[in-house]
Specification:
The chain has 193 residues and is of the alpha+beta class. Helices cover 35% and strands 32% of the residues. It has an 8-stranded mixed β-sheet with strand order 1-2-3-4-5-6-8-7, sandwiched between helices.
Length: 193
């Protein structure tokens, strides 16, 4: 695997979240409509700055350590969202999560960014499997995962403790061969146009 130098899509730039992102990251992650489906809440500005600094200076894609990506539009460096990835202890699998600032939802940015990161995880990092853990009420995220080719692997009842309550958890997964097959089918479809 080579060093992560960032990703570029048609409309987006994806890079490691860094200390310069702390203010905007804290702002949108503290919005109730954003954190209602997430277990992780950012703390103080000092804690968020420390997290962003560690994220941008430590080696990404280490087992059991979160790597957080910043999503920005190409025509500016404003943080519009983030993607978190944590590799399993053996480094062969990962969990992925994603968040968009409310002003940038329903524009296809999350699909575009998550697709780019998945491509990197399967094709460059060499992962066998990627999964996502989603609150069953988070229908927007579920639709995004299904569009990308994830399948529902299980619905766990009251399996997740968060903010004093128990919540259901849906697990969606995708294997490397499924990603590659989907990519090959899309390329063949594009060639036949």
């Amino acid at each position: 695997m080579r060093r992560f130098a960032g990703l570029s899509t048609e409309r987006l730039a994806i890079r490691l979240l860094d200390e310069g992102d702390a203010t905007e990251f804290l702002r949108y992650r503290n919005l109730p409509e954003v954190y209602r489906y997430q277990a992780w809440l950012p703390g103080s500005m000092d804690e968020v700055r420390a997290f962003c600094l560690r994220n941008s200076t430590e080696e990404p894609f280490r087992p059991s350590i979160y790597t957080q990506f910043a999503i920005s539009r190409k025509e500016g460096d404003l943080l519009i969202g983030d993607i978190g990835v944590i590799l399993s202890a053996d480094g062969a699998q990962a969990e992925i999560g994603f968040t968009l600032s409310p002003g940038f939802t329903r524009m296809g940015y999350a699909t575009e960014a998550v697709s780019a990161v998945l491509g990197y995880l399967f094709e460059e990092v060499g992962l066998h499997r990627v999964h996502a853990s989603v609150d069953p009420d988070n229908t927007s995220s579920i639709r995004l995962l299904e569009r990308l080719g994830f399948r529902l692997e299980g619905h766990l009842i009251k399996s997740y403790r968060m903010r004093g309550g128990w919540y259901d958890d849906c697990i969606f997964g995708m294997l490397e061969e499924e990603w590659l097959s989907k990519k090959d089918a899309a390329a063949a479809n594009h060639e036949n146009r």
